[in-house]
Amino acid sequence: MTYSAWYRRLPVQLVAIMAIALFPLGYAAITQSNRVLAEADRNEVVALLALTERAARSEQLLIERAIGAARLLGVMAPELLSDTSQCAPVLSRFIANNEAYSFIGILPLSGLLECSSSSRVIDFSYFPDFAPAMQNQTSSIAINESAPASGQSVFIVSEPFYIGGTFAGLVSVSEPHSRLTYKLPELERRSLIELITYNDEGTVLTARVSLANAKTELPSDRALGALVDAGNTAFQATNQNGVTRRYTVVPISGSAAGVLGIWDIGTNAQLKTPDTFNPAFFAVLMWFASMGVAMLAMHALVLRHIYRMRRNITAFSTNRHIASAKGESAMPSELQSLNDHFQQMANEVLDDEKLLEETVSEKDVLVKEIHHRVKNNLQLISSIMNMHIRTAEATETRAVLKRIQDRVLSLATIHRNLYQTQDAGRINMGRLVGEVVESTVEIAVVSNAQVAMD
Question: Cβ(51)–Cβ(190) under 8 Å?
């Protein structure tokens, strides 16, 4: 028995058809999943930006208030510098009324700080940052982890002041980092690692945990100062230690500073982007599940019954065996009808073959009887001829009768070879011709004559 190519088998064609049929659904599922995940990611970014802005509101207020205070004192700077003995009392009262500030100083172009909230006189002209600050003549926000006046870690807001329309120096307001505290349950739930403020030079101004921790959590693929002009944005990058973080950027209006929120996405599933999870996995899984269900249904409803029918047909064609009907009740009605027709056909074939065998057997009996009667008749003729030969008185008569008897015996020989053959009437013609020729020679040739036959 020969079978067709593998790609023409029913299970293979079923899988191919199901794959083509399910492809649009799988593609739509992947597309929709990506769209939903992207939308969820956008919503998450908006929520994180709002939380970052809310969490940084205190830093933003401190910086804005410091800028406002520095500008206010810049207006008063010419009067205060004219009488430096009044600087310490005035600026000390200002600090006493504003606990967020730790030091205020009015620094002239000379670099000699004589007007401040402290009674100390400090010469800043030797500081490395003094000359660039005086040359820039612009607002700035800097950090000093060990301020000379207060001795603590502070960030310093500096605003230029003018005397007679000419740049005369800077008014600096210091705010200690120890004043920064936050307690927001939303930040703890969403795994906020660090919240920092920074300036346009990329210097970390404030950090909620620690400045050392903040520096290790900065993104490794971009400069911090470049984020000041980025606006409200969010991105994903690795920190200085190679750990992936989510970063949110919120600028502080009115200043060259911004707030950077650093979030942990390793333990927070809400922060994971679509790149960390491939929705095609579910589509492929559903495809395999659909294939499995379809093949299981196909095997249970169709294939196993077709295989059973094929075995029954093979058994019938090989040895005329008809299998029992056990288990055929589970067949679908269409296959049951087909199986019933096969059973009916098989029974009819067996009945026809039985009838044909009986008919052939009867014909064989009749043929054998006919051959037997022909043989008897020829034998009877030969016996009658033999009786006439014995009773005949003339020699010529006995010779003629003898020749006739030999011809009858030749016919009997031919008849015997014909009806004794087992191959549908085909006989060994060479042997038959030899027997007939020998009989003819015996009839035609006188006794004792030598005849050569070729």
Answer: yes
- Dihedral-angle region of residue 446 (phi above 0 means left; psi in -120 to 50 means alpha; beta otherwise): beta
Tokens of 318: 């090989």
Query: Which pTM was predicted?
Result: 0.48
Q: Which residues pair with 250 in a beta bridge?
A: 259
pLDDT at 125 over 50: yes
Please report the pLDDT score of residue 185 as a whole number. Answer: 57
Residue 62's contacts (CB-CB under 8 Å, 6 or more residues apart) are: 100, 175, 179, 180
Encode pLDDT of 265-302 as tens digits: 765 444 444 444 566 677 777 777 877 887 888 888 88
The model's pLDDT over 27-82, given as tens digits with 9 standing for 90+, comes to 777 787 778 777 877 887 787 777 777 777 766 777 778 888 888 888 888 888 88
pLDDT at 9 over 80: no
**Gap between the Cα atoms of 122 and 68, Å rounded:** 24
Alpha carbon 192 to chain centroid, angstroms: 34
Question: In terms of residues, how long is the chain?
Answer: 454
- Which pair of tokens denotes residue 181? 């505290």
| 149-185 tens-digit pLDDT | 666 677 788 889 898 888 889 998 888 766 665 555 5
Strand pairing of 233-238 and 244-252? antiparallel
Question: Hey, CA dihedral for 350, 356, 358, 361, is it positive or negative?
Answer: negative
Task: Break the chain down into helix, strand, coil percent, rounded to 5.
Answer: 60, 15, 25
Phi, psi of 153 (to 5 degrees): -75, 125
Give CA–CA dist 102/348, Å, rounded.
113
DSSP E strands, 257-381? 257-264
C-alpha span between 163 and 106 (Å, rounded): 13
**Token digits of residue 258:** 């911004």
Contacts of 283 (CB under 8 A, 6+ apart): 26, 27, 29, 30, 33
Beta-carbon neighbour count of residue 343 at 10 Å? 16
H-helix or E-strand spanning residue 198: strand 192-199
Q: Tell which residue, 20, 257, 13, 290, has the closest CA to residue 156.
A: 257
